[in-house]
Amino acid sequence: MNKVTENLILDIDDIRDLFGNLDSNIDFISKKFDVSIKNNERGLSITGDEKMVLLCSKAIEFLVKDKSSENLDKQKLSYIVEKVKSENKEILNDWLDYVICLNAKLKPIKPKTLGQRKYISAIEDNIITFGIGPAGTGKTFLAIAMAAKALKNNSVSKIILTRPAVEAGENLGFLPGDLQEKIDPYLRPLYDSLYNILGYDNFLRLKEKGIIEVAPLAYMRGRTLDDAFIILDEAQNATNEQMKMFLTRIGFESKAVVTGDITQIDLGRRKSSGLVSVSKILNNIKGINFNYFDSSDVVRHSIVMKIIDAYTKYEDSLVVKK
After folding, report:
1. Least confident segment among 130-134, 218-222, 282-286, 288-292
2. Whole-angstrom distance, CA of residue 274 vs CA of residue 238
3. What is the model's pTM?
4. Which of 44, 121, 174, 204 has the fewest CB atoms lying closer than 10 Å?
5. CATH for 3-97, options being 1.10.10.10, 2.40.50.90, 3.30.1370.10, 3.10.20.30
């Protein structure tokens, strides 16, 4: 093995963040690349096989670059290390440099995985984008961030967010309270994302002006939605008829994002999910994109990734047995 040493010049703050508690981060990186990493007066020295040293150096470069948006954790650390081994520098730079917009606290909202970056590109390039995948992959949050960006840039004049109120069978008239009290429980996750991105007061102001509308899917019927960024969330709980109804509401100068998880369908046995069949019906139409997430795109606790993988393996085994 041809051993080489490369010296990286880093700020003291970068080194402190990179090493982590009890040097846990740097030990993790050393083991992943089978190299020796030591602190010196001007930064770090990396010693080992030439190829591994180059990859390790690149990984550290990206980790230092990314830490400006959030503190390093083991999940992000592991993700970047693995992607450095398989992706080129341009793709990684594009991912880490991209900022969708600033949230209410003026912090940048960025794609946290390459899968999320691909999803954002699909939204930018298509009229209708489907984001399909497990919980925790940022499907809805990123769609709302893109909607906020479009509104700020005057690309659209309003944002419309909708969900099937499947727990009530869409028969909201039978529920107690006024319209807002009836629908709020089903739309609460959308409100939470809007508060995070826009701020509570700004959201209320835009909602009062009719610039932002949050409503059940049933209330989209009979409308034509022009000059709007429209998001259908929890689309796995839309029937085929509802999916067709929603997609045919889209008017001129509008963009739509449809999100859902086909493993969490709450419809009764007699109803089929419109999200399952739509890819077979529309997959060859220009301007429509189907973007699929997997457990590697989960940005919640690492245990969630393991849970999703375990359920996927179990459900696949049931299909094989049938």
Report:
1. 218-222
2. 6
3. 0.82
4. 174
5. 3.30.1370.10
